[in-house]
Amino acid sequence: MGKVVSSAMMSLDGYIAKADNTIGRLFDSLGNGDVEVTTASPDITFHLSQQSAAWWKHWFDSIGAIIVGRTLFDVTDGWGGRHTMDAPVVVVTHEVPTEWVRAHPDAPFTFVSEGVAEAVAAAQEIAGDKTVAVAAGTIARQCLELGLLDEVAVDLVPVVMGEGKPYFGAMGLTDVMLDNPTVCIRGDRVTHLLFPVLR
């Protein structure tokens, strides 16, 4: 099985979104370079520095499944049935959005109501030897608390937001240690970092 990796663009003070789920300046680095990187969404194209483009291509190519919570699913309206990274999506939810499922019969989405551990198991089954990407926030926190995360990826953006939604949020654990980063790539106004989780 592949690794389970949480990932997000994060401000210097640890936020991945504003309280209302908008992103402010967090995604500015996705449009400040010369290298065009297309996504599965025809209306979303990145323009990255050479360093960031190489990292994003590696990251996109490694992903076999993505786990998100219901909030992110609702905010994006399920990406219209096809995630930007063009990977199958496992959604952790208390209630399956049956109308959305009926409207998107071919969407590679799986809805899991039993919890995060079951979502990880379902995503690993789908991903095989490829990486399971976990959206930061509540789901990443629960995975970390359950010992299910192998690595934490951070695209560190030099912006201070002051408040918002933190990468992990309040945890039931304290002092979870990560190892030295195995990836440290300086892009243009973003630094890509990858930390193994110590067990």
Q: Strand order of the main beta sheet, please? A: 7-6-5-8-1-9-12-11
Q: Give the low-pLDDT segments.
A: none
Structural class by SSE content: alpha/beta
- CATH architecture grouping: 3-Layer(aba) Sandwich
- CATH fold-level topology: Dihydrofolate Reductase, subunit A
If helices are DSSP runs of H or I spanning 4 or more residues, what is the number of helices? Answer: 5
What's the domain count?
1
Radius of gyration, Cα only, in angstroms?
16 Å
Strand share of the residues?
Answer: 25-35%
How do the SSEs run, as a string of H and E?
Answer: EEEEHEHEHEHEHEEEE
CATH homologous superfamily title: Dihydrofolate Reductase, subunit A
Mean pLDDT reading: 95
CATH class: Alpha Beta
For the largest beta-sheet, the strand count, sense and barrel status come to: 8 strands, mixed
SS elements, strand count: 12
The helix content is 10-25%
Shape: globular
Tell me the span between the first and last alpha carbons. 18 Å
Task: Describe the protein in words.
With 199 residues, the protein is of the alpha/beta class. It has a single domain (4-196), classed as 3-Layer(aba) Sandwich (Dihydrofolate Reductase, subunit A). Helices cover 23% and strands 29% of the residues. The protein has helices at residues 50-62, 70-76, 98-103, 116-127, 138-145, and strands spanning 4-11, 15-17, 35-38, 45-48, 63-69, 89-92, 109-112, 131-135, 151-157, 165-166, 183-186, 191-196. Strands 7-6-5-8-1-9-12-11 form an eight-stranded mixed sheet, sandwiched between helices. Strand 5 (63-69), helix 2 (70-76) and strand 6 form a beta-alpha-beta unit. The longest helix has 13 residues, at 50-62. The mean pLDDT is 95.
